[in-house]
Amino acid sequence: MASKTEDLRAKTDDQLTADLADLKREQFNLRFQAATNQLERPARIKEVRRDIARIKTLQTERAAVTSK
Questions:
Q1: Transmembrane stretches, by residue range (predicted)?
Q2: Among residues of the chain, what percentage have pLDDT more than 90?
Q3: φ, ψ dihedrals at 25, nearest 5°
Q4: Could you tell me the CA-to-CA distances from 7 to 10, 26, 36, 48 in Å, in that order?
């Protein structure tokens, strides 16, 4: 888990925003697949949700540091 966080910290704000958009798109597709009973890996929903949370947390941290 720490390596994922470290990888995210190494990215720029623009890269994080792009990753967040991609994850949200993937989350939508996974929810759609779940609703139509076509989901192959149900655990992926949880992984994507946590990755979104990691990025949002990092963005909040960076915003707090820059506003000081």
A1: none
A2: 87
A3: -65, -45
A4: 5, 20, 34, 16
